[in-house]
Amino acid sequence: MTIKEKSIQTVRHPIVVILGHVDHGKTTLLDTIRKTNVVSREAGGITQHLGAYEITWNDKKITFLDTPGHETFSKMRERGARVADIAILVVAADDGVKPQTKEAFEAIKNAKIPYLVALNKIDKPSADPDRVKAALAEMGVLVEGWGGTVPIISISAKVGTNIGELLDTVLLAAEMEELKSDPKTLAQGVVIEAHLDSRRGPSAMLLVTNGTLHKGEFILAGSASSPVRILENSLGKSVADAGPATPVTIVGFSKVPEVGVLFQAFHSKEDLEQAMSSQVVLSTKDSRDAVNAEVGIMLKADVAGSLEAISDEVRRVIPEGLSVRFFEGGVGDINENDIKSISSAHIAFVVGFHTKIKGPAADLAARFNVSVKTFDVIYEAVDWILAELKVYVPKQFTRDELGKLLVLKTFQSTGGGRIVGGRVREGKVVREAKFDIMRSGERVGSGSVSSVQRNKSAVDTLKEGEEGGLLVQSSRAIEERDILVFYNEREA
Ligand code: GDP
């Protein structure tokens, strides 16, 4: 008989997200709650926004996501992360239920987490709680005292009224949820904030949702990895480990990880490497149709004077409509750290002026798809970067929608491409039109039509209600029941 090691589940503290309409007081509330934190006051009152913070209230911890707005919250959820356990829906008592209140409520409903309403700005003479409660009821939120059970607390985030009561209610909701996790397993969680620290390189704030992260381990977040060498809590203090529901900053990533991706910890570098090699890395680099992709440029020169000169010249020629981010380069040869830091950009260039590229840096550049070139004449450098950048300027197209087709059957064509049989639901389909592939309401790919057939003979057009076959080229497989949306494109 084998005895399996059982996962020991212990109670953990809650992670809370604050959602609501713009200007209803989410940021003010987050700031006010942060100020109740005795620990941060002792540490000199950290006011920096790091993506999340922890407070202690009545000897109990609560983690708050410091990213007001449901977009980030929804984005994280789309990636499968259950980031928050409890939501606070902020509604201004003077302004009432607004479009984003409804969107926030939808996001909460989709996340299937308990929530409470914070009726904010109660200090204002124009506050009208009854009107807001009625509007909430209309939206489907039945609050306490209004025929329902959703807790509602009247607060003033600005003045600080009833904040304690709000936190008590959060803790009560958490108790009822019985949040559990296993602190003994390897940590898992989600990246909630990431940036390139000019001094320390790519760093990220992670929220551990299960397990415990320890110094000496390794983590993988999407395609970015990092040794866990520098581990800091939400007050910026170095810690040895981070348990469940704890936000923690890690410095030393191979590149800036994407916000919202899940991370996993590993005991050793070998385990990490094995996980990386089995991961399918989709490189978006150098895809010349990466419209609106961010272009990273780093300039390096021998002395400060020439760095300034080349910087002025290069900035002058950046084509309009291109999103360019300058990475700190500085004086000296192009080294491996330069390549690492710029590799977080989708498209990356390093321009050297009177400098050399070190051997290992050249290898790394090739691996990360970073274009590096050095020059001794400024205008040659400028000409090169301009020619490279021009390729990435997004062309302005206008679309004329033609029609929609419901896919009934698909086959692989012997001559390449795919054959799609379907019925035109709306408008028409013409030869050489382009299309988007829509599946369950989402765009999953695109393509173009090579030829159109109806009753076994080639035609130019299929009209509404007609059935026919299309030979198409597409970016991914088309399935039965997909909707193809056809359009013509004109350069504007
Ligand atoms: P957010 O967009 O939801 O993050 O809203 P903010 O926190 O930025 O607040 C918007 C405005 O409302 C700011 O001018 C705040 O000072 C103000 N505000 C926030 N909470 C209160 C409150 O409780 N009472 C009053 N009178 N004003 C508030």
Q: How is the secondary structure organized here?
A:
Layout: E1 10-11, E2 15-20, H1 26-35, H2 38-42, E3 52-57, E4 60-65, H3 70-78, E5 86-92, H4 99-111, E6 115-120, H5 129-139, E7 152-154, H6 163-177, E8 180-181, E9 188-197, E10 201-210, E11 213-214, E12 218-221, E13 224-227, E14 230-232, E15 241-242, E16 246-251, E17 262-266, H7 269-277, E18 295-301, H8 304-316, E19 324-331, H9 336-342, E20 347-353, H10 359-368, E21 370-375, H11 378-390, E22 397-412, E23 418-430, E24 434-439, E25 442-454, E26 457-459, E27 461-463, E28 467-474, E29 483-491
Parallel strand pairs: 2-4, 2-5, 5-6, 6-7, 18-19, 18-20, 20-21
Antiparallel strand pairs: 1-8, 3-4, 9-10, 9-17, 10-16, 11-15, 12-13, 12-17, 14-16, 22-23, 22-29, 23-27, 23-28, 24-25, 24-29, 25-26, 25-28
Bound molecules: guanosine-5'-diphosphate.
Guanosine-5'-diphosphate binds next to helix 1.
Shape descriptor: globular
Q: How many DSSP E strands?
A: 29
Low-confidence segments, given as residue ranges, are: 1-5, 40-47, 280-292
Helical fraction equals 10-25%
Ligands (ions, cofactors included) = guanosine-5'-diphosphate
Strand content: 35-45%
Distance between the termini: 73 Å
* Spatial strand arrangement across the major sheet: 13-12-17-9-10-16-14
Which class best fits the helix and strand makeup? alpha+beta
Q: Main β-sheet, in a few words?
A: 7 strands, antiparallel
Mean pLDDT across residues: 85
Radius of gyration equals 27 Å
